[in-house]
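Recall the central idea of this unit: under ordinary conditions, the amino acid sequence of a chain determines the structure it adopts. In this exercise we apply that idea directly, starting from the sequence alone.
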Amino acid sequence: MRLIDTLHRWTGGLIGLLLALLGLSGALLVHKNAWTLAPHAGDPRVEDVRQLADVTQRIMADPAARPQSISYASDDFGLLKLLFRDGGGAYADQRGALVAQWNSQWERPELWLFDLHHHLFAADAGEWVIGVAALCGLFFVVTGLILWWRTRRTFEWRLWPARMSRPAIVRHHRDLGVIVAPLLLLSLVTGAVLVFRPMAALLFGPGAPAQIDKALAPPPPREAKVAAQLDWAGMVMTAKARFPDAELRSLTLPRKKSGLITIRMRRPQEWLPNGRTTLWFAADSGALVGARDAAALPTAVKGYNLLYPLHAAKVGGLAFKLVMTLSGLAMTLLGTLAVWTFWFRRPTRRPAGRLRGRPAVS
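Accordingly, the structure predicted from this sequence is:
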């Protein structure tokens, strides 16, 4: 029993610590564009496709200095973000002039914080751990609601426990958990499904995961390497001509030897920040290979595309950002208090001999 208790204590404490870390980092990332410091970050987004095409041509022209990807300016962040294969990157204004550079993500807090929240600095393995933590968080929320129901008559609204004793912390933990349960469920469910796509079946039906995989799959790989000279401006103009109402969001060089250059766009009806409207171009010639209109995706796939905007508060304006910030801070507080009760405020057990030696009370 002592071994089981020890495992429970350390497992509960570690999950609480991880959820607290994810909650705090998530609350900060909701406002990432507001606190990212760089010249011209507040510039309005340029909509002139000719200017965007010319800037793309200049940035991508030199094969030796060509970035792996370009993320274009958005309505709330007025810079281009360039990422290179060696882990470095740069911000450029919308005319192509560099305003900030870095050699690794550790030089930019918004980059390493994003990596922490999404991957725990451990790539796919860290993402899997985060998904498991989200599932554990869902279990804690559901079981916490069940436990709270038996003590609902003692409910009190408190931002902080009345005392730093274990009973007071547990009572506060359950009462606060009930208040923020809908927000926690939203954060945890969307996070878990984004990590474990098969869980989409719970929200969108049994066939949803396979439908999502098929609908979001790129064209078949091609045996093609990126040519030294390509008409990058022509690709941008082709994309805009194909979807005139769409906002240019990113351009990415081939990954995993796909032989395809990818341009992502966002149509007005899309919530996803980078959109799912996508065009693929041959890496050796720049010819259009395929295109996907997000408006034509199946209903289940459209529903799946709503999860990340809800999780990251990319819709709903400032009001929803504040709601999800509250969710993150509540998770931080609940997780921190869970660590405190599991690791530091466990009740001390008296030796059995001392208990048996007590005189009987008449």
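Residues 266 and 275 are 4 Å apart (CA to CA).
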